[in-house]
């Protein structure tokens, strides 16, 4: 079963545990500036929102890459950057409508979420359940259930 | 090791920024943050120095766990000599500035001297630069934050700065970071402003990657996070209700200081409590509380994000206050509310916004307003003194107007900015100042919680709840329940809390974790991150060493055992209502024994044996 990251911003407290888990998993350092997932603070609204690559089926980044450095992981469905092939041209970062692929000036390559090979560290680290890793075909299930509970009359 | 082993020395007089290695011998004895920075301060300044002179120094310090995945691992402290108390000051803050300093590669920053002109420190990894802040002087914290983000075109910049109250010399101004987190107490912001240092803007992209044993660290931090999640206070009470969960609890046990501590219960408590913050208001159908929020790395997330009723008199035609911002924590709600007798939740929230916007301590401010209200009631000050404000207990208008005046250093605000000790002395009634060593009390009446009397009297930074929060034991039963109305065993309890807290404050972790964690949970996390074999016993011994170092600093600064006392009101006037009715604080039953178990002389001085045992 293909799985996907499910983000529920209303549960997010802005603690950045996900960013630390991501940077440690990928760079062996606690360093939010190297995280593939980012949490945004909409201060005046009192809202936090975690955001990362949604692994588009027809991924703009993959199509834009001139050297075919972005490939599909058949097990997880993730669009992964092959570091050895990536030339750091950043065209994928321009192509992505969501801004979730970003250049890493330390390595000269682009970094983006690869679902940690099927065990995303951000989801494990999230203390509030704002980031979960669920059935890709049913990321709407929790919201659907909540609305079902409201809209269907009780006996 | 989780230290970066690097400190930045900023000489403001000369305008230089110089990196130097961290003294690892001291780090082995004092760990980091509160302990280690106190060691540096004690070694580098004359304790008798005028706190607002260039001879004082100001240290911003992280702990070894700051910037790691340990829950709450984002703390930093500001250490200096206090202009309010003349004693050591160490104010702790969360938010995101501590981790950013660490990620930039620095354990601490030492500011010395005084800049000839207003400056701010811009720190981007190794690059440190003093930049002109002449255009920022006279700006609020919020404006400064906005202008610096724009100037550097970097939304990820983290900023700590002082507001106008500090520039105007308010003796309890703090250093505010990330808009509404504060190193709030003892006037650390006043010292920063006295050095013409407006702000510190940091961007760190190096990260923290050098924990001693990552596997052990991950295991220890995971286990500790599970303890927080499973605990009713840290797992449920604090995220849902914040520290304000205490308002009704403390009121019921008769330890809610009210109207300048004349009473111990506040009839309006339920209107300014955590529960009240959840009730939808009439005007827009929204409650005061928008959401809870976490500081860096915190899996508790006790922070409050609030809005003010858009129809409230305080913000009519002021759109800048209509958005969500840092809401009421228990201490602020108490000081601004119960202690002044004001039960208007929106007025309190507004006053709290103003405290953040211009960077002053809501505890000392609220308590000083309360003292002024009592002075007004007895006729010692009049409307002429206050510039027309009717300084009556219960007046929301008096409270919010006072906040606006202190924020900008205008009118009667200049007198309120002195703190309650100097204000009441000036008008001939020093007994009306509810302070220890010149610092205003926090939100626990020591007649109803006896251990807190000893806590306040002996706290190295003046009256403070965060030096030994025996409320945990005496009221909440953590880690063991003790009777709040007796003095039995309290000297031992206070000493144990003081030492353990000093250790936590030196690690980079938040003291609120200790509702659930003991040193048995904390030491394995420190030990996995740092060389040195950090057992709970070693942490506790270090805490005792820090406590004695702070004590020694204060003694060298000229404080004596005579300063280890409480206002007469708490020692002579019995509580009028509640479970503590008829009780005063029986400090005299606790203090001599406390000195004895501390290894101090009857005059409160650490004996030669104690000094040598603790390797001071």
Detailed description of the structure:
The complex is a heterodimer of chains A (155) and B (616). Chain A is α+β, with helices and mostly antiparallel strands and 155 residues long. Chain A folds into two domains: 1-52 and 118-136, Alpha-Beta Plaits, CATH 3.30.70.20; 55-112, Alpha-Beta Plaits, CATH 3.30.70.20. Chain A contains five helices and eight strands. Chain A has helices at 17-27, 60-64, 91-95, 121-125, 141-151, and strands at residues 3-7, 38-42, 47-51, 70-72, 79-81, 102-104, 109-111, 131-135. Chain A has a two-stranded antiparallel sheet. Chain A has a two-stranded antiparallel sheet with strand order 2-3. In chain A, strands 4-5 form a two-stranded antiparallel sheet. Chain A is globular, with a radius of gyration of 17 Å. The N and C termini of chain A lie far apart (35 Å). In chain A, 39% of the residues are buried. The mean pLDDT of chain A is 96. In chain B, helix 2 packs parallel to helix 21 (536-557) and helix 19 (490-504) crosses helix 21 (536-557). Chain B has 24 helices and 17 strands. Chain B folds into three domains: 6-203, 4-Layer Sandwich (Aldehyde Ferredoxin Oxidoreductase,  A, domain 1); 258-433, Aldehyde Ferredoxin Oxidoreductase Protein, subunit A, domain 2 (Orthogonal Bundle); 446-613, Aldehyde Ferredoxin Oxidoreductase Protein, subunit A, domain 3 (Orthogonal Bundle). Chain B is α+β, with helices and mostly antiparallel strands. The two termini of chain B are 24 Å apart. The longest helix of chain B has 22 residues, at 536-557.
